[in-house]
Design goal:
11-stranded mixed sheet, alpha/beta
Length: 254
Amino acid sequence: MLGLPSLTGCAIDKGTALAADFEENWAGTPDVAKIRTTKNNTLPFKGTSTGTLILKDGTSADRVTKLVGEMREFVARHDKTTGRIAADGITFTVVADEGRTGEILALWRSLTADDRVSDADINYAPWKGATDRWRIEVTAVDATGALTVFEDMYAKGDRHQPLAGVMVLRVRGPGLFVESDFNDGFPAEAIAAYEAVLAQYPVVRATLRRDAVSVSAVSIVVAKGVDRDRAGELARRAAPNLDAAVQVTSDSAD
């Protein structure tokens, strides 16, 4: 039996073994209401897992900070396991890098203190050449709050600090969905088109997105009775580089 590798290391369904190891490691941890895991058994003896600690309501910020530190040490030792924490409606990924984890924790603090935010998810999402890439999704209480939070996340305001590196941001609220542009940057023209119409006419709903299928970056629905052609002209004038990707329709349309 001497020198026998760990069960996690030799398990044929490694993702399953990693998930079980996560649950065993964190079972009974104070202030943890539930542990959720996923398992990905890619090939025999290969796989990954994601484990999420769902904290009890009312867990203090100091306690969250301590658990983040412990989770950071855990994922540093288990590179095939992604560690996540859910607290106060915000779920976020913890990585081994101390500086990056500090940024994520600071963003968690600011989002939980923002009464315009209902919930959010901060997730590590590397893609192609962007290995330090994060996807952030936020739900706001209303359209005004959604746009303000979105702008704040890109340092256009003073409430939230943006993450360093590549950031894909999506914020939604009743009547508005806005996401970063194709280069994962601030969609200045799309927002300008929306605000140009909103300044003149009531907007029922709008989607400011990247959509390679329909080639629609801006979709604005104005209230019934509004001069749709005039609203469309205002939007396209504010976003000349988007051209036909700006679509304005009326709420009365079929």
